[in-house]
Amino acid sequence: MIPVTSFAGRRVAVFGLGGSGLASCEALRAGGADVVACDDSADRMSAAAQAGFVTADLRHAAWETFAALVLTPGVPLTHPQPHWTVLLAQRAGVEVIGDVELFCRERRRHAPNAPFVAITGTNGKSTTTALIAHLMREAGHDVQMGGNIGTAILSLEPPRAGRVHVIEMSSYQIDLCPSLDPSVGILLNVSEDHIDRHGSIDHYAAVKERLVAGVQPGGAAIVGVDDGWCRAVADRLDQAGKPVVRVSVKQPLADGMYVERDTIVRAAGGARTEIARIGGIGSLRGIHNAQNATCAAAVALALGVRGDVLQKGLRSFPGLAHRMEQTGRRGNVLFVNDSKGTNADATARALASFGDIFWIAGGKPKSGGITSLAEFFPRIRKAYLIGAAAQEFAATLEGKVPYEISETLEVAVPNAARDAEAAGLSDAVVLLSPACASFDQFPNFEVRGVRFGELVRALDGVVPVV
User: Fold this and answer.
1) Are residues 352 and 420 in the same domain?
2) Domain assignment of residue 103, yes or no
3) How many helices (H) and strands (E) does the chain have?
4) Which of 81, 260, 332, 340 could covalently link to 322 via disulfide, CB atoms 3.0 to 4.6 Å apart?
């Protein structure tokens, strides 16, 4: 745990008592703050009280006594409208911040030169975060990984010299971190997502940009430049006189890092240096993983990792659970769990990585549906549609891709396995990549992915992929 000493002796309101909220309460209390905890859920309020925290309905609190409101990232800050706690805090002139902001303040107080790597992007940030952490561990570093990827940042060990914090950040977390200042910042890509929480893609992109714009002096800002939003970000960093490492997997760069025939290349001052090879690494299959690997390699180089250690680390990376995870094989049929593909852009990356796909898709739909995936329809032998989006997706696929309304994974998995085997293809893939949130049928994408794996392993003749 990281004790938050920056609010010692002061009163702090915490709203949202899930994992990160309770971790914030613990860290603030450990640092000497007077914590008042609140949640819309009576069960969470009860759990906080049992943990020894003062709980109260903040609607009736004396807001002028609070030094800050620490808000969980899942609670709206601006759109579709500010949460009632935000309005009350703003009315009283109380700052609204999140747990990563508390981490940043503690790092500046106690270990300002401790390596802090922050990663964001619409897609790929979890894989890139896990890969960076893996590479740094392979290089012998003490690594703490968390944030949006799972472990609340304040539950990690405190910053100190030689300890590397590798933190995945969502746009919600960035929004709640006004003084974000990583030593290395990565912006992978920007595409339309979470517009309901940011109002427009312009605002969403501007929030993402803050992560690399805030990189501390002497640090490294790494930006994927294969989309227009991020190219503009890189240009603005240049114009502001801030060093930026551009990354592309679509074209060579005169200055930056790019991928050429499965090789990561660094170009600078007219010189071209081969950094590492990523061909044949199953956990880094596909152009999207080439971007993830190149950005991770840029971080490793910025933190002094040797080329041979980098290459070894790339080859030993096991991959990320629920992101193009090879769950099993039966004969010529490979089963792939991409439950983390919660929007069309993420699913596009999975569809682009395989041919002869028996595609399981659907869930709670997001804006735009799957119309943007039309270029990948020729790769899909048949679709198996589940959840609330099934009828909408069926309408999009009508006349273009054979499909069935399976409704549930319990129906979709055996049906897709049967059809894939009967097709007699040399390399068929049963791919769960829903292009949807999970919340209509599952608590989260992890539970959805676990269930897919259970159903795959229950099929006769399925063996692990080694």
Assistant:
1) yes
2) no
3) 15, 20
4) 340
Is residue 336 domain-shared with residue 360, that is, in the same domain? yes
* Residue written as token pair 């309460």: 25
CATH number at residue 381: 3.90.190.20
Write phi, then psi, for 5 (nearest 5 degrees).
-90, -10
131 plus 265 within the same structural domain: yes
User: Is residue 93 exposed (0-12), middle (13-18) or buried (19+ Cβ within 10 Å)?
Assistant: exposed
pTM over 0.90? The answer is no
Q: Work out the number of other CB atoms within 10 angstroms of the CB of residue 427.
A: 10
Kindly state the helix (H) or strand (E) to which residue 109 belongs, with its residue range: helix 99-110
Residues 6+ apart with CB under 8 A from 193: 122, 204, 343, 345, 366
**pLDDT tens, residue by residue, 221-257:** 999 999 999 999 999 999 999 999 999 999 999 999 9
Asked whether residue 302 falls in the same domain as residue 339, the answer is: no
State whether 54 and 126 are in the same domain. Answer: no
CB neighbours of residue 44 within 10 Å: 18
Beta bridge partners of 221: 185, 244
* Rounded Cα–Cα distance for residues 452 and 446 (Å): 10
Structural domain count of the chain: 3
Per-residue pLDDT tens over the stretch 415-452: 999 999 999 999 999 999 999 999 999 999 999 999 99
Which residues are CB-neighbours of 410 under 8 A, at least 6 positions away?
Answer: 455
125 and 231 assigned to the same domain: yes
Which residues lie closer than 8 Å to 42 by C-beta, 6 or more apart? none
> How deeply is 85 buried, as exposed, middle or buried, from its count of CB atoms within 10 A (0-12, 13-18, 19+)?
buried
Residues contacting residue 288 through CB under 8 Å, at least 6 positions apart: 123, 124, 349, 352, 353
Tell me the β-bridge partners of 397. none
Work out the end-to-end distance of the chain between its first and last CA atoms, rounded to an integer number of angstroms.
Answer: 36
CA gyration radius for the chain? Answer: 23
Q: Which of 268, 296, 316 is the last residue of a domain?
A: 316
The residue segments making up the domain with residue 285 are 110-316
Measured distance CA(355)–CA(336) in Å, rounded: 13
Q: Is residue 186 part of a domain?
A: yes
For residues 39 and 47, give the distance between their C-alpha atoms in angstroms, rounded to a whole number.
11
